[in-house]
Amino acid sequence: MSDKPNSPIYVTRPYLPPLEEFLPYLEQIWATRQLTNGGPFHEQFERALGEYLGVKYVSLFANGTLALLTALKALHITGEVITTPYSFVATAHSLLWNDITPVFVDIDRQTMGIAPEKIEAAITERTTAILPVHVYGYPCDVRKIRAIADRHNLRVIFDAAHAFGVRDEGGSLLRHGNLSVVSFHATKVFTTFEGGAIISPNAEIKRRIDNLKNFGFLNEISVTELGINGKMNEVQAAMGLAQLKHIDTAIEQRRAADQTYRRLLAGVRGVHCPMPPAGVRHHNYSYFPILIGRDYGISRDQLFTELRQHSIFARRYFYPLISNFRMYKAADDRKERFPVAADIASRVLCLPIFPGIDEATQTLIGELIARHGGRS
């Protein structure tokens, strides 16, 4: 077998429904001339998505970052918010955009989400909320976080960008918190090209969110607050409807790829393949992270470079920590405060996983990794 695939292999690629399925949606959009502003596909998709996810109140957005920005505004979050340094930068950016100070705390080694036992020491009189992240679709310890929030009268907004379709013992992971925000970016398990949504607990907060994402309009002639243009357009919604027909098949293909990697990497010295925490009843296999140990033959960064030389574009996801970026150093410039997050960020590598990845490619990746680790 060649040591290079025929074309570059990236961490993910979007599942696309058959073109012949998608074209009738476009034809209807062209016929009605309704491109946005809550058109028929937007309304259909919002209902269908709620039914699939098992949640009642869904507000669609043009992208996940706009959804995060609006979720914070909808709950009147101010002051300081406790969050994780181990995430995509949009998590913390959404706080700064709302003139909120992010307060970073360390993460849990198993879930790689925020460590509940680190939260209370970071609470001050200015703290108004907690913004945890379900990293790789691995659930945070939602019950402990909720208990802390209740004790201190704090709101909880979950950045659930990776958690589409994930379920725990009680149902959708998105039901937790005061709000949950999910992303439909093209790198995600489920995509609308760009897109996102906020999951609300009741109709009242959904109405406020829907007003905020439409410039703050209460009705045609009344603007009641400072809103934003976060609306999902009809082409995005049509893509979502087409994707929903195939999402279970796509997740099953991801599951199979996950199992193949675990078989190929079993026993490779210095390579650890994390597992979803106990309590997950339905995972979405959104990423396949591995952690490179000190007993591996080369460093994580050397492996990263070697894979790229073989056209395998794995990602150091998430590296560096958000707290290491220039605009956040004023908030906390001491990485030793986050020893677990710093350790994982220095060792993590996400391997390509997506519907349709072939076993030959996975075998090549496994062989490239195993040659430096040997078998224990």
TrEMBL record:
Keywords: Aminotransferase, Pyridoxal phosphate, Transferase
InterPro entries, alphabetized: DegT/StrS_aminotransferase (IPR000653), PyrdxlP-dep_Trfase (IPR015424), PyrdxlP-dep_Trfase_major (IPR015421)
One GO BP: polysaccharide biosynthetic process
Residues the record lists as N6-(pyridoxal phosphate)lysine modifications: K188
A GO MF term: pyridoxal phosphate binding
PANTHER family membership: PROTEIN RV3402C (PTHR30244:SF9), TRANSAMINASE (PTHR30244)
Pfam family for this entry, one: DegT_DnrJ_EryC1
Protein name as it appears in the record: DegT/DnrJ/EryC1/StrS family aminotransferase
Family, as annotated: Belongs to the DegT/DnrJ/EryC1 family.
Catalytic residues (positions): K188
